[in-house]
Amino acid sequence: MRTLIVDDEAKLRKMLDNFLTKQGHQVEMAENGQQGWEIFSEAPETFDMVLSDIKMPVMDGLELLEKIRRKDYDVPVVMMTGYAELGVTVKALKFGAFDFLLKPFDLNNLLRIYEKLESTSATKQEKIEVLPFLQTQTTLLMPSEIKHLRGVVSQLLQACRPFCDLQKQYFQNIRLCLVEAITNAIIHGNLEVDSSLKEDSWEEFNRTVTERESTAPFSERKVKIVSHFNSERILFEIEDEGKGFDHHHLPGLDDIGVLALSGRGLILIRSFMDEVIWNDPGNCITLIKHLSPANPL
């Protein structure tokens, strides 16, 4: 396994380097969190583990962990800590640290963590082998509040990402489409805020959105998101409880000038997705992306 060791103690770095190298692991080293982040972010997919101290100058281990998780990197991060930092260690575990080691630590405990990680990796490989035969369907009811958008989209992406990875396809464009479609369902569907209001005043547009998020009947409406995933396609049905709109005469992508009047989000969705279907009232949109190695996202 390739491990990034991040610690401001040179002697400890050297000791861990020698020990792990003898065990057959590859090691990169950094003397603080900032240097560790620079090394990691150059090639994040090449690291199997990050072994980091918590208390360091420039950038501490918790900050490093937060940067890694905020970028959606799922590399296991093991924190090295003293008894005085146990409270911070608990915070690190809640934020997604894989495990921790109390200083001074027995190197056998470090080996046990590697064994546990190898076992976890084997389990992931078994899941990947099953994916071609797997179909999943989930339903999510989302309140009409923009503050929940990031969490909902992250949850949906976490569920569909394995199927994209199976076909070695980039999936971030799906994120953009989901953000646009769900935002439209909340603001223009359930809250009934017209996009033309932005042309007059962004301040008034945002004030109206915030006001209606807590005012009945708008605040009582939900966005229903049904997802269907398998190895051949990714499908989302996003339905609001608004009045819908007349989608029957929307211009095609070739007429980009006219289409721009319908909004940037619609251009993105119809460009990235293979199929975009509305129900007759126009309050439910279905997004479909076909998965195949020859059809990269």
* Beta-strand residue percentage: 15-25%
Largest sheet: 5 strands, parallel
User: How many individual domains?
Assistant: 2
**CATH level 3 topology of the largest domain:** Heat Shock Protein 90
Order of helical and strand elements: EHEHEHEHEHEHHHHEEHHEE
Number of strands: 10
Radius of gyration over C-alpha positions, nearest whole angstrom: 24 Å
Look at the structure and name the CATH superfamily of the largest domain.
Histidine kinase-like ATPase, C-terminal domain
From the N-terminal CA to the C-terminal CA, the straight-line distance is 30 Å
Descriptive report:
The chain is an alpha/beta fold. The protein has two domains: 124 residues, Response regulator (Rossmann fold, 3-Layer(aba) Sandwich), CATH 3.40.50; 157 residues, Histidine kinase-like ATPase, C-terminal domain (Heat Shock Protein 90), CATH 3.30.565.10. 44% of the residues lie in helices and 20% in strands. The strands form two sheets. A five-stranded parallel sheet has the order 2-1-3-4-5, with helices on both faces. The protein has a five-stranded antiparallel sheet with strand order 6-7-8-10-9, covered by helices on one side. The longest helix is centred in the middle third of the chain and has 24 residues. The chain is elongated. It starts with a strand and ends in a 7-residue tail after the last strand. About 2% of the residues have low confidence.
